[in-house]
Design goal:
Elements lengths: L1 E5 L2 E5 L16 H6 L14 E7 L5 E7 L1 H5 L3 E6 L10 E4 L2 E4 H8 L4 E2 L5 E7 L2 H10 L1 E6 L6 H5 L11 E4 L2 E6 L2 E9 L2 H7 L2 E9 L11 E6 L5 E5 L4 H12 L6 E5 L15 H11 L3 E4 L2 H7 L6 E9 L5 E13 L6 H7 L9 E9 L13 H19 L3 H7 L19 H10 L1 H4 L7 E9 L6 E7 L5 E5 L7 H13 L6 E5 L16 H28 L6 E4 L2 E4 L6 E3 H6 L9 E6 L7 E11 L6 E11 L6 H20 L30 E6 L21 H13 L10 H9 L1
Parallel strand pairs: 2-32, 3-18, 11-13, 16-17, 20-21, 24-25, 31-32
Antiparallel strand pairs: 1-2, 3-9, 4-8, 4-10, 5-9, 6-7, 11-12, 13-21, 14-19, 15-16, 15-18, 19-20, 22-30, 23-24, 23-29, 26-27, 27-28, 30-31
Length: about 750
């Protein structure tokens, strides 16, 4: 195993036999972004463009008795007004939305409310006008009569007997069967492995606690936006910031009851997403307004609207019980998890159940999951959705267990760590994974081996994300100068253009700079699933690998025809085609490219893949912090993130993902929350009051990339975008306990929460 030091970043690798993969070229889209030339959704403009605005509910729960838009429509400059009545009536169906699925009626109801509003900020009507100011004024002229209803804001409130019901037609799915009981619990499921009751009988030490988290937002820089033009020929063109242009296309086709072939979605550059820009919000409203006006309509949410009207991550209530023998072997574990779905069913509790015990080899485990609707915005994915909530509980319980046993917390984890062949409590059996290697790297790291500063606390935790595969497509065309153009459909959030291009370059034996990657619209490339689930470098990279193999094969065949030899006697290495037996026969890609038009035309490789060799990723944190006992303020003094990347295609981007996820996890741990008043209204819906960490709040975040190759990918890739947000909250909570002796079981661990804990 070799170690390479880059400032405070380390790569631990057993794979060094690549020429492009594993290097650090300049990102292809970097110049456009740093010079301001890159076009984001809010930048899009078109001739005759109208500006749209959306009227939103002031109530958390209310019946809509009537909507009168006549005064708004009469206002000078207003071109159209739409409500839910403008959607076509279609049969309900279950829709796939990238990382999630939902009912069509729920998606439609969340876009524009029809009979009820279910949260403050719920969209009701859209207006298109000559400028944003007229549209804003028009919203104030729409008259709506409500019957205000009691609301429920937490899982406890929603699950209580006699709770106000959000959906009178929603019955609880109980262990896979319709119970027929109308309630706010959309689903209760279980995963069981072994005999949990017997396992707890064998335990000599048991820890049992409850942990609570509140709603937080992804905090992307650019708010949601979309421009629509429904042209006279019936085609609908959308420009928007999205993590999945095909998800936008397919969702609009169902909502508007038109064929997918009549919709073209062009993704612009995206100002952050983290899962929150997979769902659609404003695009259907812009489309309906464009259909009425015959002109393009652009809608850009304000920051307040983004907080109140798009999908945050859920608040949760989690109960953990774990038992072990005196030597540290876990005998049983039970996780009871209720998560807020927001106004419509579909919380990430299912994903949380896949992650909560995944890092450990448990003989006996039970997971109870509850998907609960509440009067808040419908939740959306946020970087390993559900897993941070689950880890906040279980990783704290493990440290508490280690303390009772008198064991080092990393040694306890290593004694129970999952390895190849381990069957998770939720069913799947692991292939080759790197949980053990991550823990070993944590134990041996200078941070963990160092002495703590006086008054500081140290905490550790690990986290897991299972990653996904899904569909991806890629096209590669050879240019006459020996470079290639690569087109793909995965919207680029964190540098995936380059990581995908690098995999094609590795196959073709050329430099990453000789690949020109482009993210294109839905008419130009085959179906490609969302940029989410840590799938992009894995799956679209694999598509690029296969398309490059296609190009390589065609190049060899073309050279064979030029030389009039058998293609089986030729090879292609380092961008040079040569004969295996005749050293005189050599041709570079540039030389071949120059002859394309005279030897049969262009060479284009293409591939569509749906890879199944997904390899989950594990990440661990070591955190040192201090607490000001007078103010309750926590200062993170040292932070180390260690993650298995399988193979880091571009180590700098992997490090950036690790540092970004860590920063978000620190914010989630210490400050971030939706602060709700008694009326169900968020009172801190601005970036001034919603306290995300800045550079002044963060330490230098050290990284260690562990490379345990994923056998399910040609280069060993594991997705790395999500596991890194999982361990910060429990690692910080464990460090708080180590520093103060106070076990904090709620998020955020704000100064107020710390001072209250110190008083108790």
């Amino acid at each position: 195993m070799t170690t390479k030091d880059y400032d405070r970043n380390v790569v631990l690798s057993t794979q060094n036999d690549f020429k492009v993969v594993g290097t650090r070229p300049v990102r292809h889209d970097g110049v456009d972004k740093v010079t301001g030339r890159a076009i984001y959704g809010a930048d899009y403009d078109a001739s005759g463009l109208l500006h749209g605005k959306i009227l939103r509910s002031p109530h958390a729960h209310a019946k809509i008795l009537s909507i009168d838009t006549s005064k708004a429509e009469a206002l000078d400059g207003v071109q159209a007004v739409v409500t839910a009545a403008d959607f076509p009536e279609t049969a309900d169906k279950t829709m796939e939305l990238g990382e999630d699925e939902t009912k069509l009626r729920d998606l439609r109801g969340n876009i524009l409310a029809k009979d009820k509003v279910l949260y403050v900020g719920h969209a009701i009507a859209g207006v298109a006008a000559s400028n944003p100011h007229v549209a804003e004024e028009a919203l104030s002229l729409i008259e709506i009569k409500y019957e205000v209803l009691p609301s429920v804001m937490t899982t406890d409130e929603a699950m209580a007997d006699g709770a106000p019901i959000l959906h009178e037609d929603q019955t609880t799915e109980e262990l896979g069967n319709d119970s027929g009981i109308v309630s706010n619990v959309a689903k209760h499921f279980q995963h069981i492995k072994g005999d949990v009751a017997e396992g707890f009988k064998q335990a000599e030490v048991i820890v049992e606690r409850e942990y609570n988290t509140v709603t937080v937002h992804q905090g992307y820089i650019a708010p949601h936006n979309g421009t629509a033009f429904w042209s006279a020929d019936g085609r609908l063109h959308i420009w928007c910031e999205t993590q999945g242009s095909f998800v936008v296309r397919d969702s609009l086709a169902d909502l508007l009851d038109i064929p997918v072939s009549m919709i073209r979605v062009t993704p612009t550059e995206i100002g952050g997403g983290f899962g929150g820009k997979i769902p659609i919000y404003v695009e259907p409203v812009a489309a309906l307004l464009s259909k009425k006006t015959g002109t393009p309509v652009k809608i850009v949410m304000s920051r307040k609207e983004t907080f109140e009207g798009s999908g945050p991550t859920p608040g949760s209530k989690i109960k953990i019980k774990v038992g072990a023998t005196s030597d540290g072997k876990i005998t049983a574990a039970h996780a009871w998890m209720a998560m807020e779905a927001g106004a419509y069913a579909g919380s990430p509790v299912g994903a949380a159940a896949q992650c909560v015990f995944a890092a450990y080899d448990l003989e006996n485990g039970l997971i109870d999951g509850f998907d609960v609707v509440v009067n808040k915005p419908k939740t959306a994915a946020y970087r390993a959705p559900g897993s941070p909530n689950a880890a906040f509980g279980f990783e704290q319980a493990l440290n508490e267990l280690a303390e009772k046993l008198g064991m080092d917390p990393i040694d306890l984890r290593l004694k129970n760590v999952a390895t190849e062949g381990t069957r998770r409590v939720d069913g799947p059996v692991f292939q080759r994974i790197g949980a053990k290697e991550v823990l070993e790297a944590m134990r041996e790291h200078p941070h963990y081996q160092s002495e703590k500063k006086s008054g500081s606390g140290r905490g550790v935790a690990i986290g897991f994300w299972f990653n996904i595969g899904f569909d991806s497509a890629c096209n590669i065309a050879l240019n006459k100068d020996g470079t290639v153009n690569l087109t793909e459909g995965s919207t680029d959030i964190g540098g995936s253009r380059t990581s995908i291009a690098m995999q094609a370059a590795e196959v073709l034996g050329i430099s990453a700079e000789d690949v020109r990657p482009s993210v294109v619209d839905t008419d130009t490339v085959g179906f490609t699933a969302v940029t989410g689930g840590s799938r992009t470098t894995f799956a679209t990279g694999w598509a690029a690998y296969e398309a490059a193999q296609d190009v390589k094969k065609q190049c060899i065949e073309r050279a064979a025809s030029i030389w009039d030899v058998n293609a089986e006697n030729l090879q292609m290495e380092d961008g040079v085609i040569s004969s295996k037996s005749d050293s005189e026969l050599k041709m570079t890609l540039k030389e071949l490219g120059a002859q394309l038009s005279d030897t049969g035309g262009g060479i284009t490789g293409r591939a569509s893949v749906k890879p199944r060799g997904v390899g989950g990723s594990f990440c661990g944190n070591i955190v040192d912090l201090s607490i000001d006992e007078e103010t309750g303020k926590i200062t993170i003094e040292r932070f180390t993130a260690i993650q298995d990347a399988g193979k880091a295609i571009h180590p700098s981007y992997v490090e950036g993902q690790m540092q970004g996820g860590s920063a978000q996890g620190i914010g989630w741990a210490l400050n971030e929350e939706y602060f709700m008043n008694d009326e169900g209204r968020m009172t801190n819906s601005s970036l001034l009051d919603y306290r995300m960490p800045t550079a002044l709040d963060l330490p230098m975040i050290d990284t260690v990339i562990v490379e345990v190759a994923n056998p399910g990918h040609p280069f060993g890739v594991r997705g790395v975008g999500e596991a890194n947000i999982v361990p910060p909250t429990p690692a910080i909570a464990n460090a708080v306990y180590d520093s103060s002796g106070n076990r904090i079981t709620q998020l955020p661990m704000s100064p107020v929460a710390i001072l209250e804990a110190f008083k108790s």
